[in-house]
Amino acid sequence: MVLITESTELKSNSDKKQVPSVETPTPHGHEQFKPNTTVAAVIHHQGKFLLVEEVEHHKNVLNQPAGHLEAQENLVDAMKREVLEETGLALDPDYICGIYYYYREDIKLHFLRFCFVVELNEQLIGQPQDSEILANHWLDINQIKSKQHILRSPMVLECIEDYLAGNKISLSQLKTNL
Q1: Which domain holds residue 153?
Q2: In this structure, is residue 19 part of a structural domain?
Q3: Is residue 68, in this structure, part of any structural domain at all?
Q4: What is the per-residue pLDDT for 26?
Q5: Number of compact structural domains in the chain
Q6: 113-170 pLDDT, tens digit each
Q7: Residue 113: inside a domain, yes or no?
Q8: Could you tell me the CATH number of the domain that includes residue 137?
Q9: CB-based burial of residue 126 (10 Å sphere; 0-12 exposed, 13-18 middle, 19+ buried)?
Q10: pLDDT tens for residues 101-121?
Q11: Domain assignment of residue 158, yes or no
Q12: From residue 149, how far is each of 7, 21, 62, 164 by CA, in Å?
């Protein structure tokens, strides 16, 4: 822990007294590393996955509905918000298929991604509310693999493959005081 010490002089009549140093700790975590916490959703119906098309660095890319955790927001609420903003659909997650720690060399950022799964009984069509989302696409795994070169990150396909492998983490494992 880094401590800041201060010393204050007091003048009393003609005497000068030195007040002992007071230690003031820096805010907890001030110098700790903090990855970008993000959420994503694998939204599935009968072999197809809902992906969003967006622009990143002047290039169209495909991604799951995904985004950053906001202050005072729990992970499930963050996923619901991102899905609504990027697809126009109000959906609840069924479980998590994986938690991913990923470094993007091109932008020098670390990400901690929680990937949720939503199983649908019917293929829904929504209207994105976020102006940065160009379109929503329902694609099967072969179509997604053929478009790997335009996936926003390798995590897009990795999340889908973990879903297909049957990875399941119960939502009850997420604890929050928010």
Answers
A1: 36-173
A2: no
A3: yes
A4: 63
A5: 1
A6: 999 999 999 999 999 999 999 999 999 999 999 999 999 999 999 999 999 999 999 9
A7: yes
A8: 3.90.79.10
A9: middle
A10: 999 898 899 999 999 999 999
A11: yes
A12: 60, 59, 9, 21
